[in-house]
């Protein structure tokens, strides 16, 4: 059995309080007015039981207003029936200890922010303190506790108690619905008030906002990266891009000639090019250079030649060019061109072809000597005379190894021969070697005006003569020692050092016809050996022509030329190095 | 922490006579609002003064008796220090208020040792620890409320 008792006594605002009772199992006391409530207020020892100041029978409640409420003073309540007093010591209390504040009101929430991942968000919850609690005066200090849970969860999550009227909930997940309620209690006290009504928080996914930010970032970074790459390409390939976008306008060019070289004024390279590089276009250019010298004819070169070339090859090429092919170097300025192909390639020792050509050339050189031609034509039959000539001629250039690479073409024969003026002094040794080579060749003797008989003598005799052979290189002097016939010293005019002339045909034929060998077939310059060492002038004047229309470079001043030295007295001394046209006329019958 | 009550085995009993019962204190909000600020301030100071020695002795007892853990001992020391600091603070505030003319300088010598001796300070020695703590808890609550009301009456802004 359960006797009437008090269920609870609560104060909401620390100013008033209420007590509720129940009649218990004794139903007969549940009627109205059957039970009375008395309270005792223990202050200053004037304690007497008083009846409840205000009954609320509907609730079985006894209400103590502010006039009857004293804080910090113990209260005791009891139930009294007809004759029975129901009292329990546990029903004594002080007001501040029974305070349970009302729950806060106006619960609301706002979205704080969504995480970058778009999966969670934070919410700020705010509320108003319970109106019953006089917080404004400071009489009540309330602290709050928020609890939240997912919609269908069973356990509440409680946040830390705090006295402010707003609080943030972190880590809520998008798409889920949350239930939130709040309660309050007095600071430093234990008893909480009732929970507020729940509010529901839910944030649905916002795809645009969620995916937009990272997408825009990606786009921006991509564009920036592409721009940087393009910038780098433009900077590094600036030149090439300029070439592609703005190709250079083609300017007129001469084939084989670099305009840059001309601008730079490199004569050496230019000469080289002119010599052999720009083959086709050189002729007009070269002609411009020598327009002042009309008698100078320029001969085209067929190919590029090495500058200097081999010494042996110089000999070959020169000879071949002279005798076989009408390839000449432009005088003075150009390097000696060296034939690369077979046209002039025949070595000095290759006698077959060059012999033939040589003979033909020689024959053509002396236009006024048809019989010579005949003789020359017949000469191939008898090689003795010719070959020595050829050989010497061929070998002539050999002696000019160390001579200058340049020779000026001082005159060009109408027949095609070229008169060159060497640039340097001849050398004796080469002459000797040349003669030795002749000896080594096995019997092919030097060109000479000797006949076959005098060949041996000629071998042995010191070279007294100089073979006048046109050297295309203009290399120095072509001092070819000719084996003179036994006795007679060479009466050939002294060539300007290293002077070479094409051996006139008649000279060659001479030995063939003259068995005596007294008639020199060559114009042998008078140059003694001593003369060989003198510095050579670049030009030599053709002083006179002999009776055979041979050019005499330095005619002997007094005596008539020996048989081997056909001479042609010149009308007048010539300035060195030049042949005037009238002289040419003299030369050419 | 100010109102921390060490866990005792005794459940709350209501029959208490605190040594500070002689001090007339307003028992409700209205009463506290009605009295003058000077009286209110005086009441506060009286309470604070009355509790200085008892708390000190209480702490001494707690430290000596090792059956209590360190937590209780530290808490008792905290309570003693806190009350001490609070009293000093209130005295300064009162002096300031008197200087500003907010309250009349009728309060004077509450903090002096003479005032302390005047009070019946022997009662608290008879109380057991539980009752002592109970009384202290009640009085500290009073002090807290009175200070709050006083603050809002003097300085109405900031949460009043």
Automatic annotation (TrEMBL), chain A:
Pfam families: EpoR_lig-bind (PF09067), fn3 (PF00041), GHBP (PF12772)
InterPro entries given in the database record: FN3_dom, FN3_sf, GHBP, Growth/epo_recpt_lig-bind, Ig-like_fold, Long_hematopoietin_rcpt_CS
Residue spans of biased composition, Polar residues class: 422-434, 475-489
Region (Disordered): 422-497
Topology in the lipid bilayer: Single-pass type I membrane protein
Biased composition (Basic and acidic residues): 435-447
Domain of life per record: Eukaryota
Domain Fibronectin type-III per the UniProt entry, residue ranges: 103-207
UniProt subcellular location: Cell membrane; Secreted
Descriptive protein name: Growth hormone receptor
Automatic annotation (TrEMBL), chain B:
Intracellular or extracellular location(s): Secreted
UniProt entry keywords in alphabetical sequence: Disulfide bond, Hormone, Secreted
Domain of life: Eukaryota
Matching PANTHER family: PROLACTIN LIKE (PTHR11417:SF33), SOMATOTROPIN,PROLACTIN (PTHR11417)
Record-stated family: Belongs to the somatotropin/prolactin family.
UniProt keyword Translocase, yes or no: no
Classification via PROSITE patterns: SOMATOTROPIN_1, SOMATOTROPIN_2
Name under which the protein is recorded: Prolactin
